[in-house]
């Protein structure tokens, strides 16, 4: 007698009539992503330029306690990813958490979460393009930075206009290089910590306990490091969007989510631990050069700066590619559910080309504004996206809290991935998000971001609610 796996049961159930009769409509996209693409998108999604460069300022603020900050925020991200994975495996959708929010809370919530995330991704595309252009401009000073950004934009727009497998191939090789770089850094770092690297003495715990101790700037320093680390984890959501276009959506997203925990622990917490053990947190090179370059230079690794510049460039280009993809799919899903202009959602060979072009053009417009109006409009954009990812996580947690009960009651076979200790850890995650919001309100820089993001969220929620009520009356 043959046995059927839980994945097969769930995938079969997805093809049948949805449990919720008012389930959101999803566009018919192609299924060109293979399991290897999805696995590497999940691996690479957690490794961004924020880890390679931005973590330097966090170390300068928190000292060795940055390891604790990344561990705490990493634990929160693990919970969010598990919740999202549970819903994505039960209801694979290119709109991901936007679809789940609509299903659980209402159309206004799906509208708010979806368009806020689209806005975040488009602005991020511009920021990543600017960062990548800055690196290449140092190598080719004769080429203007805006021109380099334009080249990157055209490259990844063309990539995303073609079949989805092209996006998958780019991300596969980008992620391979990023993962390889992190693994190599960790191997070299661990050898140095153990005193097994030629010419380098084992540092012991001197850098952890000296220079003011493990928490030199007290709880305030830890809070700054915590806030910086929370937003460094953005990008994990892309794998649940991409899963809808994979050969086996349920199996793919389940595997990706189940391995997210060790990736976070290894790549983020592990690499931060290596840095603060090998270098004094007071080293000026950490915030100026970045923690990875500073550590490799300290160990006498030749060409460390240029090697890491290449890795950071790849991380930025990878993020551009992934964000154009994610933004286009989110916009297409929203339009298919009646949450935007129909023209945006038109498919050509299973690819939402209009949405790809719109997302890329909006991203390039942000680049133009960075040169034309850097102190007002562009700064407003930066402040507005500051806390969007946290708003999205909040919607994810609330949606999972509601949908899990419905799944257990009506379609338990779809629970291929289960949130741990439901509902207790979901509630813990929600409370942790509220704490982060409060901490953001206490710090001047993050307070401004919180206000702007809050304003955008309220405006979208009002528009979404008005649209929902109008649709109900029609």
Automatic annotation (TrEMBL):
Species of provenance: Streptomyces beihaiensis
Start and end residues of each stretch annotated as Disordered: 1-27
Residue intervals passing through the bilayer: 40-61, 67-84, 105-126, 146-164, 176-197, 222-244, 265-283, 303-324, 354-372, 378-398, 419-442, 448-466
All copies of domain Amino acid permease/ SLC12A, residue ranges: 37-461
Cellular localization per UniProt: Membrane
Keywords, ordered alphabetically: Amino-acid transport, Membrane, Transmembrane, Transmembrane helix, Transport
InterPro entries, sorted: AA-permease/SLC12A_dom, Amino_acid_permease_CS
Recorded topology in the membrane: Multi-pass membrane protein
Amino acid composition bias (Polar residues), ranges on this chain: 1-19
The protein's name in its UniProt record: Amino acid permease
Lineage, opening ranks: Bacteria, Bacillati, Actinomycetota, Actinomycetes, Kitasatosporales
């Amino acid at each position: 007698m043959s046995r059927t796996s839980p994945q097969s049961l769930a995938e079969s159930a997805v093809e049948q009539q949805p449990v919720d009769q008012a389930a959101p409509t999803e566009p018919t996209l192609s299924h060109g992503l293979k399991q290897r693409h999805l696995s590497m998108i999940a691996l690479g999604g957690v490794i961004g330029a924020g880890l390679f460069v931005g973590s330097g300022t966090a170390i300068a603020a928190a000292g060795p306690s940055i390891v604790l900050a990344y561990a705490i925020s990493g634990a929160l991200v693990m919970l969010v990813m598990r919740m999202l994975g549970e819903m994505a495996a039960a209801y694979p959708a290119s709109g991901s958490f936007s679809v789940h929010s609509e299903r659980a809370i209402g159309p206004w919530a799906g509208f708010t979460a979806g368009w806020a995330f689209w806005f975040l991704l488009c602005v991020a595309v511009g920021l990543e393009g600017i960062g990548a252009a800055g690196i290449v401009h140092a190598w080719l000073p004769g080429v203007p930075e805006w021109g380099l950004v334009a080249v990157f934009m055209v490259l990844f727009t063309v990539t995303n206009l073609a079949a989805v497998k092209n996006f998958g191939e780019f991300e596969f090789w980008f992620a391979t290089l990023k993962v390889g770089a992190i693994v190599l850094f960790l191997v070299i770092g661990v050898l140095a910590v153990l005193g097994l690297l030629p010419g380098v003495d084992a540092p012991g715990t001197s850098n952890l306990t000296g220079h003011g101790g493990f928490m030199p700037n007290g709880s305030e320093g830890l809070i700054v490091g915590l806030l910086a680390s929370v937003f460094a984890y953005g990008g994990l959501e892309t794998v649940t969007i991409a899963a809808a276009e994979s050969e086996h959506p349920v199996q793919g997203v389940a595997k990706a989510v189940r391995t997210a925990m060790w990736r976070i622990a290894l790549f983020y917490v592990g690499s931060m631990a290596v840095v603060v053990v090998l270098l004094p947190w007071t080293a000026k090179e950490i915030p100026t050069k970045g923690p990875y370059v500073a550590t490799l230079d300290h160990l006498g690794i030749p060409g460390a700066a240029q090697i890491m510049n290449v890795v950071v460039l790849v991380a930025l280009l990878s993020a551009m590619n992934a964000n154009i993809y994610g933004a286009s799919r989110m916009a297409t899903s929203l339009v298919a559910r009646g949450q935007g202009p129909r023209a945006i959602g038109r498919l050509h060979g299973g690819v939402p080309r209009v949405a790809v072009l719109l997302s890329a053009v909006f991203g390039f417009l942000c680049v133009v504004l960075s040169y034309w109006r850097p102190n007002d409009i562009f700064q407003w954009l930066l402040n507005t996206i500051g806390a969007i990812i946290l708003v999205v996580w909040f919607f994810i947690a609330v949606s999972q809290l509601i949908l899990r009960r419905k799944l257990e009651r009506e379609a338990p076979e779809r629970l291929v991935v289960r949130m741990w200790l439901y509902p207790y850890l979901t509630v813990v995650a929600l409370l942790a998000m509220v704490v982060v919001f409060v901490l953001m309100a206490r710090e001047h820089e993050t307070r401004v971001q919180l206000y702007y993001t809050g304003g955008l969220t309220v405006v979208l929620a009002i528009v979404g609610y008005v649209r929902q009520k109008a649709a109900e009356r029609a």
